[in-house]
Amino acid sequence: MLKKILLVSVLISGFIFLHYYNKHTILRYARMCEKIEVQQMAQKDINTYLKGENNTLSCRARIQKIAHDRLNMFYPSTTENIHTITTDAEENNFCLIDYIVPKAQALTK
Q1: Is the pLDDT of residue 64 over 90?
Q2: Would you say 97 and 60 are in contact if contact means Cβ atoms under 8 Å apart?
Q3: What confidence category does residue 33 fall into, taking pLDDT thresholds of 50, 70 and 90?
Q4: Which domain holds residue 51?
Q5: Looking at the domain assignment, is residue 45 inside a domain?
Q6: Residue 23 resides in a domain
Q7: pLDDT at residue 6 above 70?
Q8: In the chain, how many domains are there?
Q9: Quick one: which of 19, 108, 100, 31 has its CA closest to 67?
Q10: Which of 27, 46, 65, 74 is the 20 to 30 Å CA partner of 11?
Q11: pLDDT, mean of residues 62-86
Q12: Distance of alpha carbon 75 from alpha carbon 29, whole angstroms
């Protein structure tokens, strides 16, 4: 009889221990997931900021200003040197722009 009571008490205490251990593990993983979500949102914010900065740095006006200041090049006022290429397979638009000057004008410089 004593063995049965001891066995039942060990089983009950084992189940209680495993229950709380499992609950603690679940809480730990939930906290880790929340931390990862916060880090992901922070990285998205940083990525959005850097994309904006990249667009600002690679804009046409900035390239024109740098080329004019450092290379003494000028830009025609017409947009005949801008060509847009579209691909139907992936539905992407690419814009090929001759920013500096046409080849004939570059050769005469």
Answers
A1: no
A2: yes
A3: very high
A4: 1-58
A5: yes
A6: yes
A7: yes
A8: 1
A9: 100
A10: 27
A11: 67
A12: 58
- Pairing type for strands 92-97 and 82-87 reads antiparallel
CB contact at 8 A, 97 and 82: yes
Listed in sequence order, the residues at least 6 apart from 76 whose beta carbon sits closer than 8 Å to its beta carbon are 101, 102, 105
Residues 10 and 4: their CA atoms lie apart, in Å, by 10
The percent of residues above 70 in pLDDT, for the chain, comes to: 67
Percent of the chain whose pLDDT exceeds 90: 18
pLDDT surpasses 60 at 52:
yes
User: Where are any strands of DSSP class E within the chain?
Assistant: 82-87, 92-97
> Which residues make beta-bridge pairs with 82?
97
Asked if residue 109 is part of any domain, the answer here is: no
60 HSE (CA, 13 A, CB side): 14
Q: Maximum CA pair distance of the chain?
A: 109
- 53, 44 Cβ separation under 8 angstroms: no
Average pLDDT over residues 39-53: 92
In a domain, 15, yes or no: yes
